[in-house]
Amino acid sequence: MVKLTQVDDETAAATEQKHTFDYAEDSGSESESDFDEDDIENETLYDRLVALKDIVPPEKRAQYNYYVNKLKSYASSGISTSGSLLWAITSTGLLLGFPFFIALFSEMQLQELEKGVAMQQGSQDLIASGADPLAAEGTKEQK
Questions:
Q1: pTM, rounded to two decimals
Q2: Ordered DSSP codes for the chain
């Protein structure tokens, strides 16, 4: 149940002065230094960035937000496009380049094999003719 009491004007004025006095004591230098020391030690970077919200006017905040969103959009589309381009270049290189290098390597092996066969054929011709390769060189040098 509610109990009503009558308050005199003098009592109300004294209470207001007491509350005003208490408030003035609370906002003194001692409480500010305690507040600064406690909050600075426990303050994070996020807390500091949130506090900047009060410093920057709402119009500027909206403008900065617009530019940041635009930058995020460009960065996202750039990363997506570069990823797609890299995928296309890599897959094209594997599909076209890999078979090309295999064919080139096999062609080089075939040429080496033909050189080896030609050298064997030349040495067999010299042996079959009965000529001494060293003597044949000597006669060439004498001429």
A1: 0.40
A2: --------HHHHHHHHHHHHHHHHHHTSHHHHHHHHHHHHHH--HHHHHHHHHHHS-HHHHHHHHHHHHHHHHHHHHHHHHHHHHHHHHHHHIIIIIHHHHHHHHHHHHHHHHHHHHHHHHHHHHHHHHT--HHHHHHHHHH-
Q: Are 121 and 131 in contact (CB under 8 A)?
A: no
pLDDT for res 24: 46
4: left (phi over 0), alpha (psi -120 to 50) or beta: beta
Q: Do residues 64 and 56 touch, judged by C-beta distance below 8 A?
A: yes
Buried/exposed 5-27: b ≥16 CB within 10 Å, e otherwise: eeeeeeeeeeeeeeeeeeeeeee
Q: Between 14 and 63, name the one with better pLDDT.
A: 63
Residue 126 in contact with residue 133, Cβ under 8 Å? yes
